[in-house]
Structure formats: C-alpha cells, structure tokens
Amino acid sequence: MMKKGSVTIKDIALELGISVSTVSRALADNPLVKPATRQAVKELAKKYNYRPNFTALSLRNNRTRTIGIIIPQLVHEFFSMVIRGIEDFAYSNGYNVIISSTHESYEREVIDTKALINGRVDGLLACVSKSTTNYDHFKEFAERNLPLVFFDCICDEIDSPKVVLDDFEAGYQATQHLVETGCTQIAYVGGPINLQINQDRFGGYKKALNEAGLALNESWIKHCETGDYDDGSESVRDMVAARSIDGLFAGTDMLAIGAIKTMKKAGLQIPKDVAVVGFSNWSIGTIYEPSLTTMSQPGYEMGQKAAELLIQQIDNPDKKLTDTFTLHSELIQRESTQR
Amino acid sequence: MMKKGSVTIKDIALELGISVSTVSRALADNPLVKPATRQAVKELAKKYNYRPNFTALSLRNNRTRTIGIIIPQLVHEFFSMVIRGIEDFAYSNGYNVIISSTHESYEREVIDTKALINGRVDGLLACVSKSTTNYDHFKEFAERNLPLVFFDCICDEIDSPKVVLDDFEAGYQATQHLVETGCTQIAYVGGPINLQINQDRFGGYKKALNEAGLALNESWIKHCETGDYDDGSESVRDMVAARSIDGLFAGTDMLAIGAIKTMKKAGLQIPKDVAVVGFSNWSIGTIYEPSLTTMSQPGYEMGQKAAELLIQQIDNPDKKLTDTFTLHSELIQRESTQR
DNA sequence: TTGTAAGCGTTATCAA
DNA sequence: TTGATAACGCTTACAA
Question: Domain HTH lacI-type, which positions (chains A, B) (predicted)?
Fold first, then answer.
C-alpha cells in the first residue's frame, strides 16, 4: 500500500462539490475557471498538501521526465563529477535522474539496463562497464527508439551520440611531458586494454615515444585488469627490480600511486629516479607525497554535454543525432615530475 | 514521446484477434487460458520483445516497488557501502532503488525529498545532510504514512525506525586506544558538532579522558565545519605550534590525514611524537604513509538493515516499527599508533 | 475458455 | 464557467 494519507483531485472535488476537471484546471491556473473556484481549490490543495501523483502523470503524458544513468562506479571522483554535471543540467530542465551503479559487472549492467526499458525513463545515459563485450541490451534500448547517449566508455556498434575525452591526445601529452622532463626509458601501466579509452591512452603513449625517437620496450608495458592501487604496485615490480625505467605514465592515479609505493619501497626516489604522470586528477594526488602530476578529466562538462544531447533527443525524437563530442584533457603538473 | 517502438498487450491482442484480458492472463500464466492461446501470446510477446509498462503497472497496483535513498554524498566510501547494502537487499526482494545525492545541501535535500512524496517510491531511506536543522520535509513524508527509515545521520524528532552506529562507543574506544598507547595529551578534531554522530564521538572521547584521569584542554578541541582534508590540516595548526599534544583522535580519516600532513610539515613524527586515530576506515588510510589507525564503519550492514526495516514496513504498513538498531565499530590498528 | 468493463490519478476534448 | 467522458497500459471481477 503506497500512500494512505495521499489526497487526489477527486478528494478535493468531492469536498468542494465540483468536478475533477475543474479542480485540475484550477490547479493548472487555467484562466477559464472562476477566480473564486480557483482560490477555493488551491486553498484546499494547500491544506491537504496535495501533490499530483507522479505515476498517473507519467502514464497520461507518456513521459516520465526522468532520465536513467548507467554507470560502472559511484566511489570514483570522475564519475561523481559526471553525475553532478548530468544532475545539474537535468534538474534545470525539469528532469529527474535515476542512477544505476553496475559495479563494473556485465550481468548487473544488463539487468539494470533492461529494468529501464519498460517506460521508467525517457532516455538513458550510459558508460559501459569494464567487463562488457556484448552490447545487445543497449541495442534493444536503441531499437525501441529510446534516446540513448554514451559517455566516456562508449559502444561503437550503436549509432547514438557519444561524449568522450580525447584519451589519445591526453596519453600523448602525458608521455610528452615525461620526455620533456628528460625521461628516456618511459614505462606504461594502464587499465584493461579491451576498453577503448585505454587503447587510446596507450596509443598516445606510443606516438609520443615514437616522435621522441625512443624505443618501445615490451617489458615496460603492462595492461592491468582493474586499474586500482594493488594493480599499480604489482605492475612495476619487475621494472623496479631491473632498475630499468626513469619515467612512468600510468593510466589512472591509483595505478600511479600503487606504482610509486612499490618504487619508494625499493629505494627509488620520485621524481628524481623515476618521474610519474597519472590520469584523472583525483584528490588523493594532491594529498599524496609526492603530489602527483596528472591529466585532468572534465567530468562535469562531460555530464552536462551528455545530458544536453539526451534531452535534445527526448524533446526532438525525429532529429536523430549521432555525433561524437570530444572533450580535452589538460596536464596538471605537481611534484612527481618536478626535477 | 516515450517509446515509439514499444509493444503493448493491446497490440498483441489485436494481432491475435483476441482480447487484452486474455493476453494479460496468458502472460501471467493463468491456468484458465487455453494452452494454444497462451503459447501464441507468449511467442508474439517474445517476438516483439514485449515488456509490461512500468508506469501502468505502478498506477494499477498503487505501488512502484521502488525505494528512494536520500544521501548526502556519493564519493564517500562509507555511503557507497551503505548503498551497496541497500541495493543488494532491495534487489533480492524485488525492489528497485532511486538514489538522490544532496551534496550536503539542505535545499537540495528538501527538493529531493519532496520530489519523492508523490508516489514515485514506496518508501524512503534517508541520511540527513550536515546542513539540515529543519525536518519538515521528512515530517511531511511521515505524515502521509509513507514508510521512512533513517540511517547514520538521523532525525530524532520523527518517530520512525533508525539504524545507527554506536558513535559514542567508537569515540570512546578510539581515545582509549590512544591512552593505552601512552598518550596523555590527547586532542580531538571532529566534524560539525550539530550532528549527533559527532556529538557522540566527542562524548566518547571525553568519557575516555575522564576515565583515564586526563584533563580536558579546550585548546585541543576543534569542531570543524566539513570534516575534510583542509579542515584537518587547519585544525591542528595552533596545537602543533605549541608542541602541546602527543595524541589525536580525528572524527574522520580525512581530518586525520590533513592533520598529519600539518604535523609532518612541522617536523613532528607520526606516531612517535603524536599518535593518530581516524574514523571510517577509508582505503586511503592503507595507502597513506604512515598507514592510519582508524575505526571501522559497517556501512554494508547498515544499508542492509535499513533496507530490511523499510521493506518490512512497506509490506506490513499496519505494524509500525520505531526501534533504533545500533551497529558497532571496531578498532583497526595501523602504523599511526604503533609505538 | 474468453470477453467486457471498471478502475488506478491525471488531463484534454467536447458539450452544455 | 463547468461537467462528463475518454484515454494512457494494465489487471481483475463479472459475464458469457
């Protein structure tokens, strides 16, 4: 039983001895209603704290004014900024938001996505999880002409608008910064290479090495499964033992910090012996010692843009958008590359 | 426009030349339906990927099978675990979840709460924000007999079930551990003292000092506005300058780490000169150097219990629950108190 | 075994 | 200026 105490327009109509349509019109400030009637209705509505039933409204209007978000993680500063950007844009355009966190699980992603196919939301913003390789659930969404926009980790197989970071450029900039810092033996440690974002960051790294005339050394390249702290500290063990590198580009800040911990333990000094650049500009990077040079990720802007594209599509279903919007990253210099 | 491509039972009925009620019954596996009919319906439903309209179902059943969560922050390891606990319990009981993050803003909390009063959710789980002092929005919720359960930061004025941590006990344990470590001049740095949780942690601190026969020194006590890193580093400046303390109980891990940074900068060694205990067991506490002794916060359990109480109330609206469930914290010893 | 019709709460169309 | 009615998609008495 949902709401015992809830008042409907029927109740108000009954008490006032008028019809529900008049009540409805009065509440909508329809100029046709007699001022006295309108006032009486509004007073009673206020007295009873009347609120229009959301479900009935949705059914009537065939729209929920709600957008869904499928996102792999919540405790993640970048995603959190994306969510804020989405929320701010959505709220100021009269939309609500439902967030589903998939915890990077494909199964959860499928369940959550399908749970939103049934008219619960007017459209969907999605960032695919690390473990996703099959996109049928998103295709089903798109096939029903439900507006869908991807952000960050996108699905290329589906023809919908996308908002991404130029990860290639960012990877290139990060590595180039290490080159400029004087590094000549630069390692790469990144997240799951099945993700396009990681392929791009890695691609930028290779391009920068290439341009600088530096050789690519396979033993200095690690693609980790998660991109977290433990992966980071594990990934550089061999390189550290071999004392072979003098620079490191890490695909996430947590990888960077994990790696730094291992290097510090082995007696290496950061940035003197090894300069390190992370990725994402997490706040821990300002707190950690040494503070971490990193690439910014404009999450708020990404969220705003994605929400804008989605709401555009919802409000204008005929004009199909399929563009990809690209945002850019900036280098944030801190101690870990200050020589 | 919500879903152009969406199929309704009407469409199926039309195509099969039968009535909607038969379709509805067939899909519900009603044994009255002739097997052949049932099969035909199911096949067509499958072919068209039919999904029952969520909104229509909600309106019909007067329940949404959705519970709302009002939570101050998302990027917060404790809250994130709470959410997981809630989600797991809710999902396995056939409920969905809507999360509203208030970003510790009272205004946002009011808006978000009121947006859920209108039949969008069958019940609400709430943790009040730091800036909230007026509880009318929650009262309105409760007055409509909408099930409501508070967790962590609760509202005493409202007669609904609550799930809390024994913050008093935890503050006591943390401080006692410092006493046992040999500290005699123990400072307290905590979050906003208008919150009950902080009053309790502070209360536990005072009790432990008292029992140990240690004096309370007003200049060693700071109630911060936010409880974040910057507050932490600011809060201990005077004490550090005076070289007056040898122990610190911080009400959050971020406060602890901010304080440690200031102390380290001033040349103090942790834990040798000052032993530090934090609160919440955030993962940064394992990464930071020195690793941080802290009090655990069983967020997952809290979320599960809160969801359980809420769903109990939803399924059984007559039996009013008003109990408070108390969970307990445990000391996690790490380097910052290892002498 | 199936169909008709009412109802969930709301708004819009038509009549009065 | 107001009221009766249909409709959104679904389920369920009640009838047939």
Answer: 7-61
Residue B4 scores a pLDDT above 60: no
Distances B108 to A33, B129, B187 between C-alpha atoms, Å: 34, 10, 34
Of B residues 59-118, those with CB within 7 angstroms of nucleic strand C are 59-60, 62
Q: How far is A137 from chain B (nearest CA, A)?
A: 12
pLDDT tens per residue across span A188-211: 999 999 899 999 999 999 999 999
Please report the residues numbered 84 through 103 in chain A whose beta carbons come closer than 8 angstroms to any beta carbon of chain B: 84, 87, 96, 98-99, 101, 103
CATH 3.40.50.2300 assigned to B63-165+299-327 = yes
Domains B9-52 and B63-165+299-327 share a fold: no
- Residue A143 CA to nucleotide C8 C1', Å? 30
- The residue extents of the domains of chain B are 9-52, 63-165+299-327, 167-297+331-337
* The predicted structure's pLDDT at residue A317: 82
Residue B76 touches chain A, beta carbons under 8 Å: yes
- The CATH superfamily of B9-52 is lambda repressor-like DNA-binding domains (1.10.260.40)
Residue B34: CB less than 7 A from any atom in strand C: yes
Residue pLDDT, tens place only, A237-253? 999 999 999 999 999 99
Q: In this structure, are residues B165 and B326 in contact, taking their beta carbons and an 8 Å threshold?
A: yes
Q: Please provide the CATH number assigned to the domain covering B167-297+331-337.
A: 3.40.50.2300
List the strands of the sheet with A221-223, edge to edge: A221-223, A186-190, A247-250, A275-277
Confidence of residue B1 (pLDDT cuts 50, 70, 90): very low
pTM: predicted TM-score of the whole model, two decimal places: 0.91
Query: d(Cα B3, Cα B55) in Å, to the nearest integer?
Result: 13
Query: What residues form DSSP beta bridges with B223?
Result: B190
* HSE value, Cβ hemisphere, 13 Å, CA-based, for A304: 8
